[in-house]
Design goal:
mainly alpha, two-stranded antiparallel sheet, 2 strands
Length: about 110
């Protein structure tokens, strides 16, 4: 499968389309361009494209884990299936809340 982003053709092994936000698309292009990062950019900003990518991928991964959990319930392992769904939901919420939690921690550290 060939993926075309902003006119650039990128080879990929993904068999189904992945829908990402416009911000993630820009960040992916920036990461793929292999452009050198200026020394004046803070380290936290250097990881912004990676964090955005992980936050965008958390939804589809959580959906897959929920499907697997329901399959386990169907095949007679309800305890393992519900446990899988519970941890997928907790992981998804944790990934989505990471930027907010880091801002709170940075604010607390700045106040000290």
């Amino acid at each position: 499968m060939i993926v075309k982003i902003n006119g650039q053709i990128l080879p990929t092994i993904v068999m189904s389309p992945i829908v990402v936000s416009e911000k993630t698309e820009r960040n992916l292009l920036h990461m793929l361009s292999m452009a050198p990062v200026a020394a004046t950019v803070p380290i936290a900003e250097r990881f912004e494209p990676l964090m955005t990518l992980l936050m965008d991928l958390a939804g589809p991964v959580c959906r897959i884990m929920f499907i697997l959990g329901f399959v386990m319930v169907i095949v007679g392992k309800p305890r393992q299936g519900i446990d899988k769904m519970k941890w997928a939901a907790i992981g998804y919420i944790g990934i989505q809340w990471t930027p907010m939690l880091m801002d709170i921690i940075k604010g607390a550290g700045a106040g000290i």
